[in-house]
Structure to design on (448 residues):
């Protein structure tokens, strides 16, 4: 690839490749973990990766047995989100982001934890002055209440369905056509007679060039 | 690069599985026994590569290596990518099970583009051309896959439309790094084992299962296989 007459370049390229690898962090998995604890009258859920790094900016959805899922908010820089429960629980928290999700193993907020937060809220209400003094930052979003009795009818998303089908069809067709084209014209093997003939021809040309160079330097 | 669960609508995930099934079936029918170790090797390389993260500003990116998979495996790359993505989703929660079909399509499209570019450049001629073909192919592969993911998020994920642009931009630097890695690997392979680019696939497209069912003997696709 790099001519032997350029040892500087020959040494520079591996060094450049190593430089690229310098900031590589240790291998880590993408599995998303979650923990929850009661903080005053709120429940604080923390999302983090296997290596302990906080999962920032994930969208968190809360589900109850009674009602539909609702968006709770986004995790902060510590990968945390806090909310004040109003129902009895249990709740399931699902965090989602590009490539990361704990949808298969949602964080369960048990009724006991909810009850503890509710008790703390009642205490804070009965002693407003004390509660005001000890209150932390405001919760990011309230827990959804009981499910609405009758939701308005949503029109069927024909446009989205057709666009999805067209996208998948085009992507599949594009891939299959290129795959067939690749399969129809495989790269020649090194022991292929045509490839060998071409290599011999190249070597002959190089030999001819070398002979000319030698002839120029030593005419006798 | 991969899309998680609960982002894409059912109208995209179900046809996605169908499309990925077609791509995998096409690869399976071309798979010859001599190529199985090569497919397994590239599958494991693709799987492991996603575990190594390079910090990049507020986020981190990782090598994809699907361009290299495409250059080496050609029309069989769908097989390797499908297995690796399924393992990533199950073992390390990277990418979703329901979005597996769309993810396989997005990555295989990039891989096969890399192979096409490498073949057009005729990268197998020499190390210099292999470097050029590998760099162009792998860089383009990242962009094709990133564009496919961007389009999928724009079309299907209502709440993630803003994120689609971030995903696309985050892969601008990784495409260059990916291109350099693939180019260096391709140039090295051309020097030490150039036949690695020549995938032994069955051009008659009849798999072993089909032969067994129809009680036909194996037809050797290359003279070397016939001698062996």
């Amino acid at each position: 690839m790099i001519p032997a007459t350029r040892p500087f370049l020959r040494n520079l390229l591996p060094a450049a490749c190593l430089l690229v690898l310098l900031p590589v962090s240790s291998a880590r998995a993408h599995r998303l973990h979650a923990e929850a604890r009661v903080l005053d009258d709120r429940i604080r859920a923390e999302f983090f990766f296997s290596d302990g790094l906080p999962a920032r900016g994930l969208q968190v959805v809360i589900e109850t047995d009674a009602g539909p899922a609702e968006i709770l908010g986004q995790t902060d820089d510590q990968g945390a989100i806090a909310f004040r429960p109003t129902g009895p629980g249990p709740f399931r928290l699902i965090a989602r982001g590009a490539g990361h999700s704990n949808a298969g193993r949602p964080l369960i907020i048990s009724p006991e934890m909810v009850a503890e937060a509710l008790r703390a809220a009642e205490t804070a209400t009965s002693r407003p002055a004390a509660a005001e003094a000890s209150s932390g930052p405001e919760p990011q979003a309230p827990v959804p209440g009981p499910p609405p009795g009758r939701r308005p009818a949503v029109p069927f998303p024909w446009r989205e369905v057709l666009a999805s089908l067209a996208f998948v069809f085009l992507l599949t067709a594009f891939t299959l056509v290129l795959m067939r084209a690749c399969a129809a014209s495989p790269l020649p093997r090194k022991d292929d007679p045509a490839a060998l003939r071409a290599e011999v021809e190249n070597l002959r040309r190089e030999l001819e060039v070398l002979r000319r160079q030698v002839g120029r330097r030593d005419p006798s | 690069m991969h899309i998680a669960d609960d982002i894409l609508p059912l109208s995209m995930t179900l046809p996605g599985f169908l499309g990925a099934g077609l791509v995998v079936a096409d690869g399976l029918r071309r798979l010859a026994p001599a190529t199985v170790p090569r497919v397994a090797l590239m599958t494991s390389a693709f799987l492991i590569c996603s575990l190594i993260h390079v910090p990049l500003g507020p986020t981190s990116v990782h090598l994809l290596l699907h361009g290299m998979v495409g250059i080496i495996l050609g029309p069989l790359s769908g097989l390797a990518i499908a297995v690796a993505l399924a393992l990533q989703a199950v073992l390390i929660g990277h990418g979703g099970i329901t979005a597996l079909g769309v993810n396989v399509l997005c990555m295989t499209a990039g891989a096969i583009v890399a192979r096409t570019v490498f073949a057009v450049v005729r990268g197998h001629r020499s190390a210099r051309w292999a470097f050029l073909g590998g760099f162009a192919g792998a860089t383009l592969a990242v962009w094709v896959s990133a564009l496919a993911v961007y389009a999928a998020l724009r079309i299907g994920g209502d709440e993630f439309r803003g994120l689609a642009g971030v995903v696309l931009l985050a892969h601008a630097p990784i495409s260059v790094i990916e291109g350099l890695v693939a180019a260096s690997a391709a140039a090295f392979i051309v020097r030490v084992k150039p036949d690695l680019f020549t995938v032994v696939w069955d051009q008659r497209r009849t798999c072993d299962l089909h032969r067994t069912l129809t009680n036909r003997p194996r037809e050797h696709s290359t003279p070397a296989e016939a001698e062996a």
